[in-house]
Each structure stands twice: as structure tokens, then as C-alpha cells.
Amino acid sequence: MIQWLADFFGGLGAPGLLIWTMIKIVAITLPLILCVAFLTLAERRVIGAMQSRIGPVRVGPYGLLQPFADVLKMLLKEVVIPARANRVLFRFAPLLTLAPAVAAWGTMPFSENVWLADLNAGLLYIMLMSSLGVYGIILAGWASNSRYALLGALRSTAQLISYELAMGFALVGVILLTGTLNLGDIVRHQTGSFWHWHVWPLLPLFVVYFISGIAETNRHPFDMAEGESELVAGFHVEYSGIVFALFFLAEYMNMILVSALAATLFLGGWMAPLSFFNELKISGMAPLGDGFLWLALKIAGLLFIFLWVRASFPRYRYDQIMRLGWKVFIPLTLVWIVVVAIGVKWSSLFGGGA
Amino acid sequence: MSEHHYQLNFGPQHPSAHGVLRLVLELDGEVVVRADPHIGLLHRGTEKLMEHKTYLQALPYVDRLDYSSMMANEHAFCLAIEKLLQIEVPIRAQYLRVMFDELSRIMNHMLWVGTCALDLGAMTVFLFGARERESIFDILEATCGARMHPNYYRPGGVYRDLADKMPQYQSSLRSASELAKKNANRQGSVLDFIEDFAKQLPARVDDIETLLTDNRIWKQRTVGIGVVPTDQAVALGCTGPMLRASGVAWDLRKKQPYAVYEKLDFDIPVGTGGDCYDRYLVRMEECRQSVRLVLQCVDWLRANPGPVISDDRKIAPPPRAEMKADMEALIHHFKLFTEGFPVPAGEAYAAVEHPKGELGVYLLSDGGNKPFRARLHTPDFVHLSMLAAMAPGHMLSDVVALIGTYDIVFGSVDR
Predict the structure, then answer these.
(1) Cβ of A342: how many Cβ atoms within 10 Å?
(2) Which letter does DSSP use for residue A285 in this model?
(3) In sequence order, which residues have a C-beta less than 8 Å from that of residue B29 and are 6 or more positions away?
(4) Which ipTM score applies to this complex?
(5) How confident is the model over B167-186, as pLDDT tens digits?
(6) Among the listed residues B211, B237, B104, the one whose alpha carbon sits nearest the alpha carbon of residue B112
(7) What is the Cα–Cα distance from B137 to B150, expressed in whole angstroms?
(8) 10 Å Cβ neighbour count for B291?
(9) Residues 6+ apart with CB under 8 A from B207
């Protein structure tokens, strides 16, 4: 049916293509926002279980309606703009944070041939979009005209830029290994069972990437920009109501994005962990075969680590984060890139697959 | 203030201000150049109010000094009154006091480790600590009816003996079998529950230590941060864990024993570095030592029944049953709870090893039923005043660690 719809709108010419793209965007964004909603609930339940308490269970069965109650509360709250804030930028900043977080999903492959755009430079595009988010944070911190917010913005700018580097180097390893920036091709390069995944040859890069991802999304233990116990709420200390919710939406979308990217680049994307699953057929279909199910499971597993880390660790100090980024991660990734490069060259010289 | 310094008003509404600390920080980037603690936002005039209350009526105010270790506050106040009155406290009451002092210490340190870890970003520890505190609150509830402010110690002993029953968990969210499991150790007397609690606590402290003690991030945040050298700790008037973390084995329970501490067997942990990490280790070890003390008290209390309050009817109220038949008992009761008891003229200072340090109560009596002057020496006031000397040179995040490990409660700083 999807093919039929694509053909139908394609037949209408340029306006049809526009409508079809719009439909696809909505089809990606809406479930994503729902995922964010339930991720907040999952976070509270998971951390609750880790802290020997229950978490939200009162709103709806098993607390399932809690996210909607939260959104409703946020919507009904007044958006207070501080008197000496820059009103235009203050309103603009959350949008600038949210838009790249959503836009980055444009080239994410969900399954074989299921994506918004099959971009050849897909990986580059995602890197670009995830780097843009920092402008929203800087603007929010600056426009609030609050000392806590400004400190938070400063911290997060320095942090994001440093970890962007480590993250970029970690991705260079993947690019070297696969020779492509197309996310779909990167996944296809990992065809086969789980020992074909990139996580094994690139294990240090995977670890660095994921930790940098936690830092990129300003999550615990790298949440310097918010630093609840130091900066109260950091860059969004002056935000309230639905504008505040936009920041959270962006943060959680970025969390899912980082997990999705880690799953795609290192854990075989939509591939089943054992190729054997593709042969389990029920009336011609392989319900456990390669497909979105596996990607979703991998993302969920990585998101669980996000929550687990949040429940377990104290927060780093600002300079310690920078030290970790510059003095540990960047040298480590640089060394491993050389190792990967030598390995790739070696195998191309002497035959055999990389 | 030079112009490139950034002034940050830290508090009084701040998540790590531990109440209402207002700290005016001058920052050079993230590094603190000057820290100026402003106190007094929780000032309630406790000392002045005490001059207008009978001794018994003043007792609840002491609960509200350091509201995380109430019983230890009461102990100091009662000791000062008893010194003036020169009365004997029944031995069972002294054991009860020691037991509840140590439970207070556990309660205080559990809250402290939780909030301090929360300040440094580890949120789970707080919930773990709160769970143990909840058990102690239940003990207090069963013993004297109140959970937070027990008003349990009285001049001449304690309010009443331990109860035979523990309050039970009730919940609409948990199944009957789950509830039965949670209530399993609450079937016996309060003493049974305290014993069970004390026996389980070391494992619970282990849980917390697993999350923190060897955690790299925790160590990076605390080791070598806020070092108070031994001589400075003495010079600045540190007491309690703050002083012991700096390497001075000073503990009033050993040096000037009160109640029955000299009959009990316990050790005092001493640190070496005087940094935030040592303060943490000292407090965690104190929890384990408190468990030892509680268990010794439980054994003694189980074997030795007896009166828990002085039988001097001019000081301590008569039992309820006596009042039903005895006119004189009724008069005593009436006089005690209206005009109180007169206290001989003189002055007295009594100090206890409060979980936070040395808590001293100075009372000056003119022979009336109210103190002529009451003065409270609270440990965290002294510790907080060190902050201005300690904070410069540290980063903003370290100031949070400093305030956290000083163990400050504004109820007792501001009084």
C-alpha cells in the first residue's frame, strides 16, 4: 500500500511530491513525539524501580497516561518571560533546539527502504543537525539574562563542541570501515549475524561514541548545562510552561537519535542479531527477520543504558568533563582510527573483507 | 569587586542551599574568588522564645533546631536542665537516650549522605537513605507518637517506655502478600524492630557505599576537595565528623562521657586528609558504629526493665493511673503542666556529641520556672562560617560539595 500511495502522489507532479513528503514527515514525527512521551514515563518507572520506589502509576493503567497529563499541565501553565530578557530570542531559542533534533531524523533508515530521504551524505547531515542544537542552548542562556542560565550556556557550549570532536572521530572509524556516508549502506555493510556488526572491530569507538552521545544530549552524568544542584536548571532556568517542554522534547529526541545512530552504525541497524531469524517463516513472512522491530529493540536497550547511568552516577565537574573529552576520548579515537585505517588498507592489499 | 568578576547569588532558593543559605559568590569564570554566606533567613528567635516558656514548653523548640537529628538536640537540653536540678536519671532512661541518640545519628547521616550525593548528582543514594530514615520515623512514631519532632526526652528521663507494637504498612497499591512481606519485621515489639533494623543496616550502608566509595566520579568530586588541615580545623572550631575527618580523635562520647556511653563498646573513626571524601568515609563508618551501640542498648534494655523517668514528682509527672485515685498526684500534674517546675538559680552548660558535632546548651536560671537566658551552640553554625575561608580557589561545583559535606541544617544554623 505504501508503494501505491507513493506512486499515486508521485503521479500528481511536484505538489503531489510535496504532500507525500509531508505525510512521511508526519508519519515519522508523530510516533517520535509519542516515543518521547513514553520515554519520560519509562525513565520515571525504570529509575523508580532502581531506587526501590514505584514511580507514577496513578494516571491511567500503569501510569500510561502520565505523559499526557504532564503535557496538559505544561500547556496550561503560563510562559513567564523575564522582564529584562530578549523577548524575540527567548521565544526563538527552544525552536532552534527542537528543529534540528527533529530534522536529524530525516535520513535515519528505519528498515530496508524505509526512510524520509536516502541521502548519500546522510551521516554528515545528521552530524550537522545535531551540532546545530547548541545554538538554541546558547541563545536560551543568553536571552534569559540570568546568571545561572548564562553559566549553563557557557558550559554546554564548551562541552558540546569538545564532545562533537570525539563523536566525529568515532564516526570517522565507521566511515573508514564502510567507505560510505550513506546510513543504509552502512547498515547493509553489517549484513549477517551479530558478529558482523561494527561494534566488534570498532569497540573503543563505540564506547567513545556512546559516552559522547550522553554528553552531547546533556544527560547525566554530563548534565553540566543544567547542573540541577549547581546551576538550578542551567540554560533553561527561566523557561516555564510549554516552552520549557520544548527543550525537554528536544533533549529526549536527541537521546533517541543518539541511540538510533549507535544502533545503526555499530549494532547492525535493522538487522536481526542472527541471520537464522530470517528463515523462521510464518506464511511466507519472517516476523522476527530483519526489520524495524530489531532497530526498535536496540534503541530501547541503549535508552535503558541512558536511564541506568542517570540512576547510578554522580555528576562530573565541568573541568573534569573537558579533561575526559580532550585528554582521553580524542586521543583514543585518533589512535583507533589509525588502527582501523591500517586494518582496512591491509585487508584491501591482501584480499578478504574488512 | 573588580569588574571582570561575575557575581552569582547562590540561594536562598537553590536546590543545594540545604534550606535557606544565601551565598554571594564572586566568580572568575567558574572559579570562586570570594564566598560570602548570608544567614538568618530561617531565624525564629528560639533562644529568646525559650526565655518565655517553662522548661518543658521549651523542649519542643529544641526538636526544631536541627530537624534531622531531633533526639540528640533534646538530649543536650535535658542534660543542661538536669545539671541545674541536680537529679538522677534512671539507668534505663539513659540507655534509651543513648539508643535514640544513635538512631538519630543514623538518621542524620542517612539524610546527609543522600542530600550530599544529590548535590553531587547521584540521585539514587538519596532514596536509599530516605528508606532507612523511614524505618526510624516509624520507630519514633511507635515510641512517642510523632515522626519528626518526638519531644521524647524529658528532664529526669524519657516520656515513656518503648511500645509493644509497631505501626504496619498499609497500601492500596501493593498486594496483600507484598504488604505481608514488608510488615514481616513489624510483628513484634518496637525493640524487636529496632534490633532487626540495626542488624540490617550495615548491609544497607554497604549498598550506599557500593554506589559511592569506589566510584571514580565520586572520588574525583570529593578527594582533595575542601581540605581542612588539622591545625586549621582546631583553630576554626570544627567539631564532630568535620574535626575527626581532619585527623583529630575528638568525640565527646569518649572524652567527656555522658549518659551510659562509658559502659558501651564503640570506636570513633578518624580521617587523615580532611577532605570531602574523608568526611564521607567518617560518617559512613559512624553509621556502622552507631549500629554497634544500638545493638548493645537493645540487649541491655531487653534484660533490664525498670522506670524510665525520675520518681521525683516535683519534676516528672505522675503516671496516669495514679492520678485517677490520688489527689496529690493530680495537683502535681496540674502544677507541672501549667507553671512548670522551678529550677535552682545558677548556670549550666551541657554538650553532647550531636551527629553534626558538639551541640552545647547553656542555661542561666534565676530560680524561676523559665530560663533567664538560654544560649545554643550549634556545630553547623561554626562549620558554615568556615565556608568563606574554604571556598575561594574552588570551582562552583566544589562549593556545592563543600556545603554538602559540611552537613548544614538551617534550623540549627539560624535558630
Answers:
(1) 10
(2) B
(3) B6
(4) 0.80
(5) 888 887 778 888 888 888 88
(6) B104
(7) 9
(8) 22
(9) B128
Q: List per-block mean pLDDT (blocks of 10 residues) for chain A, which spans 354 residues.
A: 73 80 85 89 90 84 88 87 84 87 84 74 85 85 84 83 85 85 82 78 86 84 72 79 87 89 85 75 72 85 90 85 87 88 78 48
Angstrom CA distances, B309 to B90, B215, B327, stand at 6, 47, 21
User: Measured between alpha carbons, how far is B356 from A8 in angstroms, rounded to an integer?
Assistant: 75
- Among residues 74-113 of chain B, which lie with CB inside 8 Å of chain A? none
Distance CA A108, CA A306 (A): 20
Q: What is the CA radius of gyration of chain B?
A: 22
* Helix/strand/coil for A237: coil
For A215, how many CA atoms within 13 A lie in the half-sphere containing its CB?
30
The chain B residue lying nearest A223, using CA atoms, is B121
- Name, in order, each residue with C-beta under 8 angstroms of A243's C-beta and a sequence gap of 6 or more: A79, A91, A94
Query: What pLDDT digit, counting tens, does each position of A100-145 carry?
Result: 888 888 888 887 776 777 778 888 888 888 888 888 888 888 888 8
Grid cell at residue A40 = 519520560
Q: How far is A265 from chain B (nearest CA, A)?
A: 29
Task: In whole angstroms, give the CA distance from residue B215 to residue B203.
Answer: 18
Please state, in angstroms and as integers, the Cα–Cα distance from residue A92 to each residue in A13, A36, A139, B25, B290, following that order: 35, 22, 8, 31, 56
- The pTM (predicted TM-score) of the whole model is 0.85
Name the amino acid, one letter, at A269.
Answer: G
CB-based contact B252:B79 (threshold 8 Å)? no
Interface test mutation site (partner B, options A145, A229, A310, A318, max chain B beta carbons within 10 A): A229
DSSP state of A327: I
Q: pLDDT per residue over B247-290, tens digit each?
A: 888 888 888 888 889 888 889 899 888 888 999 999 999 999 99
A312 and B131: CB-CB below 8 Å? Answer: no
Q: Are B316 and B309 in contact (CB under 8 A)?
A: yes
Question: How far does Cα A29 stand from its chain's mean position?
Answer: 14
Long-range residue pairs from B364-367, CB within 8 A, at least 24 positions apart, any chain: B365/B84, B367/B342, B367/B343
